[in-house]
Write a structure and sequence with these properties.
The protein has 9 helices and 8 strands. The protein is of the alpha/beta class and 330 residues long. The protein folds into 2 domains: 93 residues; 208 residues, Vaccinia Virus protein VP39 (Rossmann fold, 3-Layer(aba) Sandwich), CATH 3.40.50. The chain has an 8-stranded mixed β-sheet with strand order 3-2-1-4-5-7-6-8. Helix 5 links the parallel strand 1 and strand 2. The longest helix has 30 residues. The protein is globular. Belongs to the nicotianamine synthase (NAS)-like family. It is an enzyme of class 2 (transferase). Keywords: S-adenosyl-L-methionine, Transferase.
Length: 330
């Protein structure tokens, strides 16, 4: 335990120093200094760690909240920069690999789709999806539309009109995905009746950065989404909670949802993923009409990434086939 506490103290000290250095930067727009500091920050936060950032002291919590705001601002500027760069091409979608973290979005969207397909009862074949907090580079919607949901319409919502203008330009030359992609400038708190038309709603990690704000957003979705609709919430785990807000599954259950799965990747997919379903058997306060909410008893269904399970099964099948076809020599 002492060794673990020493490891946590060393990590918090390192993150505190990086926060101080980032806060002193004259601008968070992409530059060698900005890129170097955020690369060092991500490198420090991604490996598995015993830290529980929700239990840190007030000073560390204040530092973490400020760091998440800086990360949000820097991420927005990075995406805007690359969105403008991509928009200069005749078909921007042919050049998405220029963005340094594009593969991370590919892997995250694959994970989310596979979790939905595995844990939502009856699977998913959504006619319409909403992505809340899509930003100037709506990679998640694009990857889901192009690779996993070829018949689905996507409504992307963001508070920033400039972000939506940038995003819409990326799809101007694509007759398939572009025709299924629309962008709306709106606060999720102002959405009501339209939320009922979606089969799946994705909630970006940086929508409602404070815990109480995130809980309010989830409760609002629970009040207006259709019964049976799925909710995908991006969260964080361990030291990755210095980069993104951590969402408590209790808040999701309290918003009128049944939590189906919680997944904490340990690879280059930084965000955790929580899959939930709007339940007609839940009151607005999140309790079952019978014996209380699923998460009220602490039985949060934490699962492994299904993609790894699939790779394991494929590998085992190949080995069985190789063994069956091999010549036996005595």
């Amino acid at each position: 335990m002492a060794l673990q506490n020493k490891e946590v103290d060393a990590l918090v000290q390192k993150i505190t120093g990086l926060h101080a250095a980032i806060a002193k930067l004259p601008s968070l727009s992409p530059s060698p200094d900005v890129d170097a500091l955020f690369t060092e920050l991500v490198t420090a936060c991604v490996p598995p760690s015993p830290v529980d950032v929700t239990k840190l002291g007030p000073e560390a919590q204040e530092m973490r909240e400020g760091l998440i705001r800086l990360c949000s601002e820097a991420e927005g500027k990075l995406e805007a920069h690359y969105s403008d760069m991509l928009a200069a091409f005749d078909n921007p979608l042919d050049h998405l690999g220029m963005f340094p973290y594009y593969n991370n979005y590919i892997n995250l969207s694959k994970l989310e789709y596979e979790l939905l397909a595995r844990y939502v009862p009856g699977g998913i074949a959504p006619a319409r999806v909403a992505f809340i907090g899509s930003g100037p580079l709506p990679f998640s919607s694009f990857v889901l539309a192009a690779r996993h949901l070829p018949d689905t319409m996507f409504d992307n919502y963001d508070l920033c009109g400039a972000a939506n203008d940038r995003a819409s330009k990326l799809f101007r030359a694509d007759k398939d995905v572009g025709a299924r992609m629309s962008f709306h400038t709106a606060d999720v708190a102002d959405l009501a009746g339209e939320l009922a038309k979606y089969d799946v709603v994705f909630l970006a990690a940086l929508v409602g950065m404070a815990a109480e704000d995130k809980a309010k957003v989830i409760a609002h979705l629970g009040a207006h989404m259709a019964d049976g609709a799925a909710l995908v919430v991006r969260s964080a785990h361990g030291a990755r909670g210095f980069l993104y807000p951590i969402v408590d599954p209790q808040d999701i259950a309290g918003g009128g949802f049944k939590v189906l799965a919680v997944c904490h990747p340990d690879d280059d997919v930084v965000n955790s993923v929580i899959i939930a379903q709007k339940s007609k058997d839940l009151h607005a306060n999140g309790h079952h009409r019978g014996h209380g909410g699923q998460c009220a008893h602490g039985t949060v269904p934490v699962v492994n990434p299904p993609c790894r399970f699939g790779e394991m099964v494929t590998d085992m099948a190949q080995k069985r086939e190789e063994f069956a076809n091999a010549e036996v020599v005595f």
